[in-house]
């Protein structure tokens, strides 16, 4: 039971069981005409059966995703249209999805583009222009990117060379790092515009890694930016850190992906700490977020860490109808990227609320090693 004074609740429901139980239900009806303000942005990399499994799904699986979107009544919108609605806080239909692809791999052109063109679906490809300039074999060409544009695609910025942007090069100063990051973004944008014409100022962080300092650079340059943490894009998302649902590798399963597609955003008004970076010597972050009242079942809020590990969750009233949730993990995070995910069922609809937080953990000596 919920305690109003911060008493710890050890939550007990495995996330996978919750998702599968919800995923096998075929009743997603929302009988009201209530306006919504969110969209589900899907993230893909390779669409191939012969590329690294962790960042790939087969053409057959991708076709199944498109069929699921159609069957469940989703409208597939261009990403700029969704961003315009979020910026202006304009309502959207309840079921809006967006298709995005990072890195401009050739498999997207060969295997995904024909399926999307057949269905007249818009999409976005985030591009590293240097790889296209160098004509690397795994990547699309400028001519293929122009063809994708003509087929309804938006081309957008993914940095020039796909670096780990939050990391310094050796003894690099803050000023030198900032100048290098600005060049990664602006030099890439310049090349995209030279080769492809008008390109919106949309930016996807390489590897989904960002910090408040990097967000400030992105904002100062006038970009809207996207991570790789999961959750609905909504007015509760920062425009420099909009979530996307990974839909490849282990996340390509249609049953669990379907649950995410139908998820709603928690009405979060504060999310702490500000930075995703975690002390490598003490990699046990404490995550605190504050929410407005909503249609979520607070007594069934559950949070999970790596390997679906159940996390400790404290809930307390924060005044003015708000709720403060504090999430901790008794197990230290490994170096690299990790995520905490929190979900809660809707009070009356057969769907969940969803919130995710990414953590970036260096090694205790300050290095990052391989990821």
Descriptive tags:
single chain; 371 residues; alpha/beta; Immunoglobulin-like; TIM Barrel; 6-stranded parallel sheet; 5-stranded antiparallel sheet; 9 helices; globular
Provide a concise account of the structure shown.
Keywords: Hydrolase, Signal. This protein is about 25% helix and about 25% strand.
Structural class: alpha/beta
Q: Biggest β-sheet, characterized?
A: 6 strands, parallel
**Helical content band:** 25-40%
CATH H level of the largest domain: which superfamily?
Glycoside hydrolase/deacetylase
CATH topology description of the largest domain: TIM Barrel
Termini separation comes to: 40 Å
The helix count comes to 9
Explain what this protein looks like in three dimensions.
27% of the residues lie in helices and 25% in strands. α1 (15-23) crosses α9 (254-261) and α2 (59-71) runs parallel beside α4 (106-119). The protein has two domains: 1-28 and 264-361, Immunoglobulin-like, CATH 2.60.40; 30-261, Glycoside hydrolase/deacetylase (TIM Barrel, Alpha-Beta Barrel), CATH 3.20.20.370. By secondary structure, it is an alpha/beta fold. It has nine helices and 19 strands. The protein has helices spanning 15-23, 59-71, 79-88, 106-119, 129-133, 142-150, 174-196, 212-220, 254-261; strands spanning 5-10, 40-44, 46-47, 56-57, 75-76, 96-102, 123-127, 153-157, 202-204, 224-226, 245-246, 264-265, 268-272, 287-291, 302-304, 312-319, 322-328, 336-345, 352-361. GO terms for molecular function: hydrolase activity.
């Amino acid at each position: 039971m919920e305690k109003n004074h911060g008493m710890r609740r050890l939550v007990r429901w495995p996330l996978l069981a919750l998702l599968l139980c919800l995923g096998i239900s075929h009743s997603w009806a929302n009988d009201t005409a209530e306006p919504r303000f969110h969209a589900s942005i899907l993230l893909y990399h390779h669409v191939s059966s012969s590329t690294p499994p962790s960042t790939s799904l087969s053409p057959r699986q991708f076709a199944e995703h498109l069929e699921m979107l159609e069957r469940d009544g989703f409208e597939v919108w261009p990403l700029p249209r969704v961003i315009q609605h979020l910026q202006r806080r304009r309502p959207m239909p309840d079921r809006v999805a967006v298709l995005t692809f990072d890195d401009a791999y050739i498999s997207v052109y060969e295997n995904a583009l024909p399926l999307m063109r057949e269905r007249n679906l818009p999409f976005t490809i985030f591009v590293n222009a240097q790889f296209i300039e160098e004509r690397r074999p795994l990547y699309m060409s400028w001519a293929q990117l122009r063809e994708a544009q003509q087929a309804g695609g938006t081309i957008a910025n993914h940095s020039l060379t796909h670096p780990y942007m939050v990391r310094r090069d050796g003894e690099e100063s803050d000023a030198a790092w900032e100048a290098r990051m600005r060049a990664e973004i602006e030099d890439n944008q310049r090349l995209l515009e030279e080769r492809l014409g008008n390109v919106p100022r949309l930016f996807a962080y390489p590897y989904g890694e960002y910090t408040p300092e990097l967000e400030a650079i992105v904002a100062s340059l006038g970009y809207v930016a996207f991570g790789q943490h999961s959750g609905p894009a909504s007015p509760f998302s920062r425009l420099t850190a909009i979530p996307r649902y990974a839909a490849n590798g282990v996340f390509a399963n249609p049953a669990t992906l379907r649950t995410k597609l139908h998820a709603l955003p928690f009405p979060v008004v504060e999310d702490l700490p500000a930075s995703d970076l975690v002390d490598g010597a003490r990699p046990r972050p404490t995550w605190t977020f504050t929410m407005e009242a909503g249609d979520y079942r607070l007594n069934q809020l559950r949070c999970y860490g790596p390997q679906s590990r159940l996390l400790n969750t404290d809930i307390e009233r924060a005044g003015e109808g708000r709720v403060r949730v504090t999430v901790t993990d008794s197990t230290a995070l490994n170096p690299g990227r990790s995520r905490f995910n929190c979900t809660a069922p809707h009070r009356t609809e057969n769907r969940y609320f969803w919130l995710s937080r990414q953590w970036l953990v260096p090694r205790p000596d300050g290095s990052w090693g391989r990821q």
